[in-house]
Amino acid sequence: MNRPNLLIIHTDEHNFRTLGCYRDLMEEDQAFVWGPGVKVDTPHIDSLARDGAICDSYYSSSPVCSPSRASFVSGLYPIATDVYKNDIPLKEGLVTFAEVLKNQGYATSYLGKWHLGGEAKPGFAPEHKFGFEDNRYMWNRGHWKKLGLREDGTPYVAARKNRGGPASRVDGADEKSFTTDWLTTRTLEIIERDQNQPFCIMVSIPDPHGPNTVRAPYDTMYEDMVFQNPRTMDFPVEKMPKWHRFGDRNTARELKQGQMQRYFGMVKCIDDNVGRILADLEAGGLDQNTIVIFTADHGDLMGEHRRHNKGMPYEGSAKIPFVIRWPGKIAPGKVVNTAYTTVDFGPTILGMMGIEEEIPNAHGFNDAAAFLSDEKVVDDDRIVYMTTSTSQTVMAVNRRYKLVLSQADDPWLYDLHKDPDELVNVYSDPEYKEVAEKFKAELIAQMARYNEPALRKGRLIY
Fold first, then answer.
1. Where do runs of H (alpha helix) occur along 24-83?
2. Disulfide check for 344: which of 8, 340, 386, 432 has CB 3.0–4.6 Å away?
3. Integer Cα distance of 96 and 347 in angstroms
């Protein structure tokens, strides 16, 4: 077989519960936290999980845009990429998985939001490509809703402010100009161009990140759906961790129905465009030899724990969707419960593709064997760590337990199987003494190994 193609569909601030394939793994009260039957159907993304593998414990290295994206492309934790918070440029000279694939003769392309080029906004076609040779449709920052092409083929933001600057308004965008559709069309053009050579394409869709607006008919598709407060929104704030107070501007006291309805609309639009891509691969005979991945940079709490958006160690913020299909190589219906973070992506995907060249000094773990094995369920107890600079916490997590440390409070240990709502601290419970000690020791060891700046002389400085 020819060398496999790689196609990554990457979204922004995407709550995993909005995908049917993740709801199928949960008890009903977890699958429908906004009320019984409150859901958006995502058959095309679900098909990737049905025909391939779904990861149920995949986390951001740090659940905000730039740090997580930096780790995803480089295999390094945020401190090693220089990108410990948003709007910091990726360290020059870093080797990405795309650079490795380009060196191996792959045609490499990136479309959509990058957010690793500093302050530029929108910043189309950044100077530093980091291995993505065709980055014409890459922009640095902004959640633009309407895009266009000039006569010379260069892209631009088609919605404008009154004074002429780019605007993140829908502004009458349709199936040709709305950003999710527009990026998909450009992706299909690149697939057609590069179909006779091995290719790597990453399309980074800026939705369903706010502003929660979407083109017709998706803007009214869920207007009759009523969203209830998640149980955790109504939990007494005095019983929540003290680190919960960081980032108070994202506090949620009630759900705004229109915001939630249009978030679902954005997800539905994304799924329909995933369907366009999958149909195109099949029509061109490329589906059998193309690895297709659907994932995101971080989640969106969407009212859980009285919060919106990201930056917190809770599951809705830190856990990301990750589904992958490779016919004939990945067993259909595989469920991988092993914990990963975005640093693991590069080493693992290169390992799966049989690429001997590696990302230099990558922190991530190559777990290609887990995906390529005949096992239908993979249950490893691996512990991974992540940091959340916005909430000043560090976290160790595996497929069952999560430990959160912060100088703002005592350690919090969650049993995610017994307490999936993350409300009960069992750190001081004698029944969990061994788990608590193991996780704390492993977290401190990994922080030291990767030069986590929150650790100085063995003590947390947050």
1. 28-31, 43-51, 65-74, 78-81
2. 340
3. 10
